[in-house]
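Onboarding guide, step 5: your first structure request.
Type a short instruction followed by the sequence, for example:

Predict the 3D structure of this protein.
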Amino acid sequence: MKNRVFLFMAMLFLSHSAFASHQAWTSVQIKTIIVHDNGSTDFMGEAHVVMMSSASSRPDCPGAADRFIIDLSKPIANTQYSTVLSAYMASKPITVYLNDFCNGNTAALRNIIVGTPD
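The system replies with structure tokens like these:
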């Protein structure tokens, strides 16, 4: 019985640790938007969004901590990019959820909210 309780407690701890490592929503202000079309370079087809400060929740990517990318080859990219651009033009904060993995050296955008969620 003691072994079962110990096993249950260990599984509970490990599952909590796994959930704790997941990304979360982060509110940021946009500083700069950079769109690349450098031929066949690593940045081709990407929009880099530079934030005023680093996202508090992001994957451990080797690139700069104050930016994320929008992969312009994905079907949702036009909507993501226009949302970022309109928030930037209106000086509104955005709340982003970044992927749990790196796209090259940089975190990639998964979800976006203009403003802050309630």
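Each response can be followed by summary notes, for example: The helical segments are 2-20, 77-89.
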